[in-house]
Structure formats: structure tokens, C-alpha cells
Amino acid sequence: MGKISLEVNGKKVEKEASDNTLLSTFLREHLQLTGTHIGCDTSQCGACVVHVDGNSLKSCTALAADVNGSKVTTIEGLETNGKMHPMQEAFKKLHGLQCGFCTPGMVMSAVDLLQKNKKPSDTEIRDWLEGNICRCTGYQNIVAAVKEAATKM
Amino acid sequence: MASLVGSRVERKEDKRFLTGKGRYTADINLANQTYAIFVRSPHARASIKKINIDKALKSSGVVSILTGKEIADDKIGGLIAGWAIRSEDGTEMKCPGNPPLAKDNVNFVGDPVAVVIAESLAEAKDAAEKVEVDYKVLKAVTSTADAMNGDTIHEGIDKNLCFDWLLGDRQKVKEAFDKADKVISIDIINNRLIPNAMEPRACVADYNAASEEITLYTTSQNPHLSRLIMSAFGNVAPEHKLRVVAPDVGGGFGSKINVYNEDIVCSWAAKKINRAIKWVAERSESFLTDIHGRDHVTHAELAVTKDGKFLGFKNETIANLGAYARVFGTVTPTYLFGPCATGVYEIPAAYTNVKAVYTNTAPVDAYRGAGRPEATYTIERLVEKASMELGIDKTELRIKNFPTAFPFKQTLVHTVDSGDYVAGMEKAKQMADYKGFEARRKESEAKGKLRGIGVTSYFEACGIAPSAAVMSLGCGVGLWESAEVRFNPTGQVTVYTGSHSHGQSHQTTFAQIAADELGVPIENIDIVHGDTDKGTFGMGTYGSRSLAVGGIAIVNACKKIVEKGKRVTAKMLEANPEDVEFKDGEFIVSKSNKKKTIGEVAFACYLPGVRDEMKSPLPEGDEPGLKETSFYDPSNFSFPAGTHIAEVEIDPETGHVKLEKYTACDDFGRIINPMVVEGQVHGGLAQGIGQALYENAEYDETGQLMTGSYMDYTMPRADNFPEFNIGYTCTHATTNPLGVKGCGEAGAIAAPPTVMNAVIDALGGQEVTMPATAEKVWKACKNLKKSNAKAA
Q1: Which of B256, B289, B322 is the last residue of a domain?
Q2: Which of B18, B284, B709 sits opposite A107 (nearest CB)?
Q3: CATH for A86-152?
Q4: Are B373 and B448 part of one and the same domain?
Q5: Which of B9, B11, B13, B18 to mutate to test the interface with A (most CBs of A within 10 A)?
Q6: Separation in Å, CA of A63 to nearest CA in chain B
Q7: B353 lies in a domain?
Q8: Do B251 and A99 count as a contact with CB atoms less than 8 A apart?
Q9: Is B657 in a helix, a strand, or coil?
Q10: What percent of chain B has pLDDT over 90?
């Protein structure tokens, strides 16, 4: 057991957790932030993507202890004053989600893409999202949503 | 008031999903809950000699360990096949018992033998490793084609044969083939797929000792049906003491229709230990134990005249059921498959023969399209081959054999009420620039690439299903749907549906329908589903049935509301009910300026009286309240159809197939929300293209799943697809009041043959099995080079 101190979605949190606690487990079970989803346990599907110190990270394969002291943003922290982030708005407007399960990871990953590449091409968007699996949408409307968000950010 | 049906309404469900507020089963935690881990067979086929739980019981945090013996002692029933199929010789199908925890034998890798329940997940995992199961390993049967020659898996089921089923007339087919100028034949493998909904299966079971009620939260596409099966066949609890809740469900694609072992075991065990139990599958468990899809081996023949008229068709298929027959396991390769075998063509004589076999693999059941993709793949590969062998353009050959009039009475089962297949073909050709293909082929050639074009014209029977029809076919239940429309006294509406949304957008599309019917703003309408305690019994969502069956139940319930509203308005305004018209949320007495809004009428229905007056607004015979229910049983299936065209470019040096263009032109009847339909088409296409180019579930000869993770099973990803080119034609269904047909499965049905026809076209007609991986295609390219060299 050890103490994990993080800043999650702008709030300081401190919890005891066993050393083998994954970041995804810490968020879901210790902080009840269940918006971060577990789809594969092996870092393949990307449903668990969060931001750690501004960069996207698959939280199911990071130990909470490894990111101790970091700033973490989850899907729950993307709104500002109750207003959805332009990426969230674009996903809604362009039907970039269906069942919603891969969505939090997909959105977090897409937001990071636009932090690093303000005007990505279709190919760049598709390449970047290669680490996020969606079984519902066929990705087309996700790509459209990322492009739409790029015009608003 | 503008109609919402037909509009691109943004989804009501999206905000919660986009902000992390979705509530999936794995997000649910109950007070004092325990955690379950299942001990699963590592062998594909073995008898269980002994299970020793002594060490495991002493492990830290263990609450209980239960095995097949306890579940049998408590007379808990097993998993069932929902449809009874009779063989050609009149004998009933043969189904083995499928206990929720195996007691004597295990029949596939992942078959559960025990459940370990502990205070924490980690403790449950530790203890599960200490359960000692002594197996006698037996020779596994894994090959679909050879299953009938393997050892007998289930005692008393000879040749591992569940049934040998025939649809059609062998004699007539023989006569047709005798008259043929040419017979086109094909051998096909329809590759086994794993549905892979992104949310792994999960359940949380709770027992309330005071009310003696079990509550099961589970990842189900049909909670009411699950409750019925768990109660009537599983003997878990009487239906009124069992509540099944399917909250937000992260995709299904058929894999969450079934009641699974874990649902029954956790429900039963929660009562036994009088505590809540949570189980969440790891992805590897999903790969091993979710139902799989497809897995057919087929030989088919098409008899044709030299000018391309189809005369006869035969289809001999071996369908793999896996280890056990599950809910839709037996109907998928029969009544969902056989009647669609002749596709969109007039073929005067046809039969389909299916031998369904057991193997030591995960159960095979309904996966997006269920039977119809397999049927369409066979006929559309055959037709494409016929076009090559006859030297007739692939689109012309199809048009030549399309029905000339509707209703189109097919040779086998269906009477297709509406459609215009020629219009669909013409529009698809235009969208795809079919004419320009040869120029594009030459451009590719100049770059050293091979380019191919593939076409598919499909139809499907969905809106599953008219009870009278399916009962006569052997289904255990009717497949109608229910809806209840409740007005609150202050005018908002709650619609309870027996359908279930796990991505399909019912919260929005069903609200659009109700808003139009009732003239109530969409924001004042809530759609409730997924909880057996809320709303009446319903059948759930699969087979593109939610709109064509469930949606119509909503329309009908709304119409009853309006009828009552007219009677009440007439009483309130002292008019004849026949003189009251309803439009845009207002009841208007014709030829007068007297009217009541539907909100005022609802209020009057709940507060039937005026202070200091004896007068009630309720006509004699009408009870207070404004709530109506409808159970809608369709008179026929609905029949979406369309033509898809794909173009691929192959690099012969690497065998890499690039999908360059994909055009889909579908006729779904009336479209409620174009945005949602577009999404359904995209998703179906991705799965269908996945089957053609990427996905394959593979077992080795000992029955170990070789593709048990995302490292081995190729899931389609964003960079695998071009931008899809989507369009529609529209003929309204004549068998339901909305004129709707269904759109959920079309892409998965049409895409595999479309893409494979293009690949095989590029390869000069050389057969390649799905998925057309770089290795297979590269080998075919080498052969092509050799044969071209010879020809030169």
C-alpha cells in the first residue's frame, strides 16, 4: 500500500492504494470516476485513455503509483462550467458515437491529437486514432467530428 | 408543427455518454458486494474426474466456492436453444444439456466449472487459481467440415449432428439443373467471427431477503427475454421475484441476446450467500465465451441458361454450432439463412440443406445479420462467378434476374412486399461511377497495381418477426413488441418500450415518433427501456426489429391515446367524438373554434372534475388517467434491400488490399433519422469489411483459440477504411403504418461479398477465402503472374 496523490480534473486527491493498482482502477474504483472504461485490459482498445500531464495515456496499463504527483484529466473533467468541450459538441453534432463505450477514450485521444496537430488531415486523424477501437460507428463520423472540432478549438 | 420523423435530430443520449455519465453494468457497485471469478476449462474436451476446492476455500477473503454439483443439486436449469428445428427426415433436433457450471464434461475452452466468490476481486482471482480440477482430456473436434467424422462429443448425438434440415424441393431443383446450359458451382467458407462489443459482458446480482427478490444488472439486449429464460428454464426464481436490468449497454451485435452462464450462476449464488455479487469479463473471457458468429462451410450451385437466366439453385451447408445450441444458435443457420438463400433473384427452383454440427468450440449464435450475411455471401459470390463464366456484365446479369413486380413471391418462403431493385442498382452504379471503372483499372495497372470492382445486390428479411410465421417455423416464442405510453398529469410523456438500445439511438428516434404522433415537444418525451420492473414484457433488440416492430407498437399506443383524447375532448366541449380532429397536439372540434391541447386533455384525464361542479370530462365508460399499451405483432417480415459496389487496389508485391471506394445504396423504407441511419450503415459496413479483409476466429486442432486477444484477432481500425459513399432509394414497406424496413444489419450483410467480389475480380477470378489477408492475396498474385506468363 502507498499513498497516491494526484490532481484529477483540477481537484487534489489523496488515497491509499495497493502498489499494483492500475490508474484505470484507481480512477474507477477509488475515485468513482467511471467514465473511463476498460475494454480490453491489454492496451489495445483505447477505451481507457485519459490525459496525464497533458498527454493521452492508456490508463489500464499504467500504475497509479507511476503517475503519482501528476495532473490527470478524465472525460468527466473536459467540460468547463457545465459546457461541453468543442470535441464533445462535435461528436454529438456529427453522431460520432453510438453505444458510447469507446467514446470517453476516443474523445480524450482526439483532444490530444488537436493539441499536437491543430489541423490534421483525414489520414492523420485515422492514423492517430488507430489505437482506439470503435465497433459501432465505422469511424467515419468520428473523423468528421475531429475535423469539426478542429475548426472550433 | 414540423414533422420530426425524417429529421436529423441530435441524440438525447449523447450528453451522458460524452461526459462520462453513462451507467454501464461494470459501473454499478452495490453495498457489501462480493466479486466472482469463474474457473474455466483450459481444455476443449475433457471429463471432470474431480474438483478439489479445499485449498481455495482457505484462501484469504473467500466467501463461497460453488461447482456444477451444487447447481445440479439446486435443480438450476441450463442454457437453451430458443428454436426447435426438424430434420428433413422428420426427426427433432438433438440438443445436449448445457448446465451453467459444467459437472461431468467440459466442451470448449472457457466452459465454466466453478465460481469463486470473495470479498475482493484480487482475492477471488487468487483463490480461483487454487481450485484443482482433475480432467481426463479427450480428443477435441474442432473442424466444421470434419465434425461429422469426429468422436461423438455429446452422448447420444451421432455424428455430432444437431439436425439435417432442408428447405425447398430437391426434385424440382434436379429438373431445373437438367435443363441448364451451364452450372456454376462454388465452395465457400464463411469465416468464424467474434462479435467484440467494446463493453465486455458483466453482471451484478443482488438478493433482497425481505422481498425474496433477485435483481440482476446485466449486459443484455433483451432483459425481459433473459428474465423469462432464467425463470422458466433456469429455475432461478419465479418471474415476479426476478428483476433484470440492462442499463447502458456498450454494443451487442447479437452477442448479448443470450442468457449466459454467469447471469444464472451469479443470480443463483447471490441468493445462496445473501449478498450482492459482481462479475466483469476480462477481454480474454469475452473472446473465449461470448457467442461467436458465422462459421459455415458451403457448396452451392447455380443453374443458368447461356443468356444468363437463373433456373435453379442449391446450397449444401455445414454450420458449426460450437459446443452447445444457444438461444438463436439453431435458427441462425436455418430460418434466418435458408429463406434468404436465393437473394434478390427470381429462381424458380431452389433448396437449402443445412447440417448443423457440434464442435468443441465456443457456441455460435446470432451475430449482426445472423444467417443473412452467410446466405448473401453465397448467392452473390455465385452470381459474380456466373457473370465471369458467362461473359455478361455483373450488373446486367443481376438486373436480368431481378423480380419484375412487387409483391415478389419468392420460391422458398418470403413474399417481399415492396422494393425497386433496378432503381437501387442504377443509382449505385451512378454513385460509384461504375462506367469509369475501366479507366481506373488502367491507371492502377500503370502503377503496377491490380484493381477490381465488386457488386452485391442484397435483400434481408428483418423486423423479426411475425409470431404466426415464426411459430409455424418452430420458434419457441412469438416475436411481437410492446409499448406503453404514459402521460403525466402535467403533460410530459414517458414511453416504455420492450426494445433495448445499446447504441441504436432509441431514446431519440422513438421520441421523434412519439412527438409526431402526439404533438408533444421531443424534450418532454422520455423513452424508458431495459428494466423488467419498468414497462411490460418485451422481446428486445436484434434482427433489425426495434423500429419495424417496437416503433410500430409505440405508434399504435399513441393512436389509442389520441382516440381517448378525442372522446374526452368531445365530452369537455360538448361535441360528438366523430367531429373531433387531432392535429399537432390539439384536439379541434371541426367547423368551430373550440379546441383543447393534448396537455389540457391529459390534465383533465387525471383530475376528472371541476370544483363545485358534478361534471366530469370523462365520457361514460372511460376510466381516469391517460396511459395506453400496445402489443404489436407484424403481419410479415420487412425487406430492406440495396446494391453495394466496392473497388479495391492490390499491390501484387505485398498482397496488401486497399479498399479504395465503397458505395452503398440502400432502400430502408421510410427513414426516421437520417443521421442515425447513416451511423448504422457505417457500422455495419465496418463489420462486413472486417469479415472480408481482417477478422478471423481460429482454433487449433486441440481446440485452443488462437485468436484470443486484440493482438491476434484483427479488429478493424480507423485507418482501415476509406470514406464510405452512402445513398438511398426509398420504397415504403406496405406492411406497417410507418412504412419502415430496418437498417441495422444491411452493411454487415452486403459488405463481405461486395469486397470479396472486388478482390477476386482484381485477381482475375481466383478464389480467395475470407479474410483476404496479405499473405493469401500475395500467393494468389504469384499464381496470377504464373498463369499470365503461361498464357503469353
Answers
A1: B289
A2: B18
A3: 1.10.150.120
A4: no
A5: B18
A6: 16
A7: yes
A8: yes
A9: strand
A10: 93
Mean pLDDT of B290-311: 98
Does B315 lie in the same domain as B176? yes
What residue in B sits closest to A90 (Cα-Cα)?
Answer: B18
Q: How far is B466 from chain A (nearest CA, A)?
A: 28
d(CA B273, CA B648): 58
**Residues from chain A contacting residue B35 (CB–CB below 8 Å):** none
Q: Determine, yes or no, domain membership for B356.
A: yes
Per CATH, the number for A2-77 is: 3.10.20.30
pLDDT level of residue B476 (50, 70, 90 thresholds): low
Would the CB atoms of A122 and B18 count as touching at under 8 Å? no
For chain A, what are the domain ranges? 2-77, 86-152
Give tens-digit pLDDT for B14-65.
999 999 999 999 999 999 999 999 999 999 999 999 999 999 999 999 999 9
Burial code of B425-441, b = ≥16 C-beta within 10 A, e = fewer? bbbbbebbebeebeebb
Q: What is the number of residues in chain A?
A: 153
Which of A45, A107, A138 is nearest residue B724 as measured by Cβ atoms?
A138
Residue B233 domain-assigned (yes or no): yes
- Write out pLDDT tens, residues A61-113: 999 999 999 999 999 999 999 999 999 999 999 999 999 999 999 999 999 99
Q: What does the pLDDT look like over A5-26, one tens digit per residue?
A: 999 999 999 999 999 999 999 9
Residues B627 and B644 in one domain: no
**Nearest CB to A74; choose among B20, B197, B685:** B20
Q: Take residue B67 and report the three cell numbers written for it.
A: 461447482
With respect to residue B587, please indicate whether it lies within any of the assigned structural domains: yes
> For residue B358, which of B146, B192, B190 has the smallest C-alpha distance?
B146
Place of cell 407498437: B553
Q: Identify the pLDDT of residue B475.
A: 65
Note the helical H segments in B332-393.
372-390
Contact B320, B295 (CB under 8 A): yes
Claim to verify: residue B284 and residue B223 sit in the same structural domain = yes
Residue B102 shares a structural domain with residue B218:
yes
Residues B189 and B68 in one domain: no
**Chain B contact probe: residue of A99, A137, A147 with most B CBs at under 10 A:** A99
Q: How do residues B588-640 score in pLDDT, each as one tens digit?
A: 999 999 999 999 999 999 987 777 776 788 888 899 999 999 999 999 999 99
Selecting from B19, B249, B250 the residue whose C-beta is nearest the C-beta of A75 gives B19
Mean pLDDT taken over chain B: 96
Alpha-carbon distance of B258 to B238, in angstroms, equals 19
pTM of the predicted structure, to 2 decimals: 0.97
pLDDT tens string B372-407: 999 999 999 999 999 999 999 999 999 999 999 999
HEC-encoded secondary structure of chain A: CEEEEEEECCEEEEEEECCCCEHHHHHHHHCCCCCCCCCCCCCCCCCCEEEECCEEEEHHHCECHHHCCCEEECHHHCCECCECCHHHHHHHHCCCCCCCCCHHHHHHHHHHHHHHCCCCCHHHHHHHHHHCCCCCCCCHHHHHHHHHHHHHC
Nearest CA in chain A to B720: A126
Domain end position, chosen among B235, B268, B289: B289
C-alpha cell at B440: 481506373
CATH number at residue B695: 3.30.365.10
Number of domains observed in the structure of chain B = 4
CA-based nearest distance A74→chain B, Å: 8
Q: Which residues of A87-104 are buried (b: 16+ CB within 10 A; e: fewer)?
A: bbbbbbbbbbbbbbbbbb
B385 and B327 assigned to the same domain: yes
- Asked whether this complex has an ipTM greater than 0.90, the answer is yes
- In this structure, are B463 and B610 located in the same domain? no
| DSSP helix/strand/coil, B45 | coil
The answer to whether B254 and B291 have CB atoms below 8 angstroms apart is yes
The sign of the CA dihedral B335, B338, B339, B340 is positive
Domain that holds residue B465: 415-476+637-792
